[in-house]
Each structure stands twice: as C-alpha cells, then as structure tokens.
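Hi Y.,

Following your request, here is the sequence exactly as I used it, all 252 residues.
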Amino acid sequence: MSLQPTAIAPVYRRILLKLSGEALAGEQGYGIDPDVLIRIAAEVKEVIDLGVQVAIVIGGGNIFRGIAASAGGMDRATADYMGMLATVINALALQDALEKAGLQTRVQSAIEMRALCEPYIRRRAIRHLEKNRVVIFAAGTGNPFFTTDTAAALRAVEIGAELILKATKVDGIYSDDPMRNAEAERLRRVSYIYVLNRGLKVMDATAISLCMDNKLPIAIFDLGKRGNIRRIVNGESVGSIVAGNDDPQTVG
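Below is the corresponding structure, written out as tokens. Let me know if you'd prefer a different format.
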C-alpha cells in the first residue's frame, strides 16, 4: 500500500506581497503585460490554496513615476498623486487576473474612488483576509512624498502580516554586484541596520525603518522564478531575509 505524501504546512499565515509596477510591464518595459498578470495570479492562487492570507501592494512605475516627473520640473506633490492613480490602474488589472484565476478579491484605495474600489479601512481589510479574499492596496499611503515601499510596510504592520515579500528581478541581496564580481556571495540573512548603513536598494529607508521598529521581516526574492512565493511561505531558503540585528549570513 502506497502512502500519500504529507502536505507541508505553511510557515506564515498572513503575508503582504510588494510588486513593482515595472514587474507588470514584463519585457515590454511599459504598460501591462497580460501574460505577467496571469502568471502572478497563478502563483498567488497556489499560496491561497495552502490557507495563507495574501495582501498585495503594487507600484505604478510602468505607467507613471512621480519622482521622474518631478525631476522634469513638475510639482512633486502633483506628480506623486498622478503616480498614485497609476497604482489604481495596476490594482484593477491585477484584480481582474486574480478573479479569472478563481480568487475572491477586494481593492482598497487610500484615495477614495467608490465607483472603482473600496476606501482603505483597516478592520475591513482584515475581515476580507479572514474570508480568504486577496486584498490589493492601491494609491500608496494616500500622501505625496511617500513611496509604495513605505505603503507596503505600513499596510503590513496595520494588518498584522507576518512577512513582506518584496518581488525583484534578482534572487536576493549580494555582498557585491554579482554582474561585476563573479565571487559575490548571496546573503541569506541581513539585518535592517546592515541595509540602512550600506544604502542597499532593498526598500526605501522609511520602509526599512518601519519594519525594523515593528520587527517585521522582509523576504527579497526573484519574481521571475516560478514557485518562489510558495517556497517562501513553506519556509524554504529562497532569496534573502532582512530581519534582526545579526551579522550577515552567506549562503553556505
């Protein structure tokens, strides 16, 4: 008689996934690639099926970047508000893909636009998560001069997420630029202070500081490798973790 393999219980019960707007553009570099949406939706469904509650914060850089427009002479606050609207477009596109994958979703925006999505209400967001709905937080924090990285850290703390998953194009944090130095080592675990002191482009300093104050770990991983989100929630060593105050640990 053959025995059925025992399912792996996820290590994390509630996570927040931070996606850049550029990730949705795929290889085209601008706009929204439908194939990328379908792949992300499939990966999110994998972890929802494991019983993990998932919230998402998404950027808007594939449509409009407030900082870039400000550098070109536009008023920074105006540019940032335009960037927030771009995140709403991305959130609605991702919502459509997730629902086509069979998931229940809600989009909550920090800027009210009731014809399109709910206003952000913390208790309502938590209730949606408890009902296994994917909650997509749009419009950043609702304030100019704050990035969507900071919005991700803020929302994660507010909803009691146990981990932030920061999707990138590389498979973690390295001791040096791996494109220039073949001997660069991937750091399995680094501290918040290590990231801040070295100015690593993991998340912006405000987001890192907020996570540090609330002891919220951040997983840095390659979104391009299928199954990484599932591996992380199952406790596998994927990418790099920012947490605690210990010395950097390389991958052995």
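The chain has a mean pLDDT of 92.

Thanks again,
Q.
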